[in-house]
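Input record (one chain):
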Amino acid sequence: MPLSVSRPALLRRGSDAEFRNLINGLMTISVRMELIRNHLAERLGVTGPQYSLLMAIGHMEGPEGISVGKAAHSLHVTSAFVASESNRLVREGWLEKAPDTADRRLMLLRLTLRGSKRLAELGPLIQAVNDGVFGSLSGADFSMLAELVDGIVRDSGSTLHRLSAPKHEGTRTDDKNF
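The corresponding structure, as predicted from the sequence alone:
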């Protein structure tokens, strides 16, 4: 098999085995985090993505709420997705949605009293789960991991954008610029 990376920083003694092990570990973490999220969501009677949206709004809403765009940005999803899911959550009594008084073009989202109460009740379980998942990290490890993940999220987003861009005539599949 050809090497899966070419950057020297990602190779060890000419081998990509450590990199492939990292990718396998990241995929395992991704699946497990989604399973954990779905378990917590089930406790509330919502979907996993709805749980993530409720948590983001709960942590980021100010007195007036949080805009659909800011919620989407924090979750790395589209505003259309947040608008659609928030409409469902409004109908189910989890969220309130109102125009921004300063900019009527923006819609603001806020947890309802019911939503705040239910998330608060789940708080001890969320803490225990997160403490368990990240139990091996020191403060320095956590800071470094947070910085590294931000970079990988950014780089993977731009790579995905290039990968999904329309192909131009003459572009080879092995072209490093996609």
